[in-house]
Design brief:
Elements (H helix, E strand, L loop, with lengths): L3 E5 L3 H13 L3 E5 L2 H10 L4 E4 L15
Parallel strand pairs: 1-2, 1-3
């Protein structure tokens, strides 16, 4: 079963690798590199899974899960 996945990753190389791997497995992946972009996406799109950097600039990462 394909999942809709949000990858919130600041490092672009990691983001490309994660996206390629997950898409190869049949999932749809949205990649963003900032907390603000992630919140904007989550306002319009329900996702099944969020993959996030632990240390994002100027934001408590756990707060993304309170949307």
């Amino acid at each position: 079963m394909a999942a809709l996945i949000l990858a919130l990753l600041e490092e672009h190389t990691n983001a490309r690798q994660v996206k390629a791997c997950l898409e190869e497995c049949g999932h749809e992946v949205f990649v963003v590199d900032t907390y603000v972009k992630a919140l904007a996406l989550l306002r319009d799109q329900k996702v099944d899974l969020i993959i996030s950097d632990v240390h994002l600039e100027m934001v408590a990462t756990y707060s993304i899960f309170c949307v």
